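for the recovery benchmark. tokens below, seq after
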């Protein structure tokens, strides 16, 4: 039998519920949304075609001189292999959604993602996302990765590019 403390603990809202929930809300309320299924931990299939891995960061790494805040996301060899397996299947499109606290949601397609990190690495890889402080939308989102790649992402890509 559960004690009152256990049941309260299990009902608490976790940070992942807040951050990923905000991104999922924007997906399911898009006019082209039809179906969402959970494939694994933070891994979803949208409209039976798009494979979407969602990650969130709650801690700012630092604030840059250009009034940007930096968020860092780590990808384990297991996560990268799982995404690679989905990307190699016909008819799948793999996307990575990076939720940067309250500032922004960054959407990377497979090409951008693989330009930033080595998905065949046996070690963890990272992606850093620089967002203007306060969520200002001018200038887009600057993204860099452990493989040395850099890309620019528009704020408007999420959730639009999922559909």
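predicted aa per position
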């Amino acid at each position: 039998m559960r004690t009152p403390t256990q049941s309260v603990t299990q009902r608490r809202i976790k940070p992942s519920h807040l951050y990923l929930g905000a991104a999922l809300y924007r997906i399911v309320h898009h006019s082209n949304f039809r179906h969402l299924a959970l494939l694994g931990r933070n891994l979803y299939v949208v409209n039976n075609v798009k494979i979407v891995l969602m990650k969130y960061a709650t801690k700012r790494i630092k604030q840059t001189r250009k009034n940007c805040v930096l968020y860092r996301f780590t990808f384990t060899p297991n996560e990268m292999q799982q995404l690679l397996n989905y990307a190699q299947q016909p008819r799948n499109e793999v996307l990575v959604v990076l939720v940067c606290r309250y500032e922004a949601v960054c959407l990377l397609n497979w090409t951008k993602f693989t330009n930033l990190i080595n998905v065949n690495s046996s070690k963890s890889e990272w992606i850093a996302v620089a967002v203007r402080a306060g969520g200002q939308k001018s200038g887009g989102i600057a993204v860099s990765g452990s493989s040395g790649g850099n890309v620019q992402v528009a704020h408007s890509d999420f959730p639009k590019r999922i559909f």
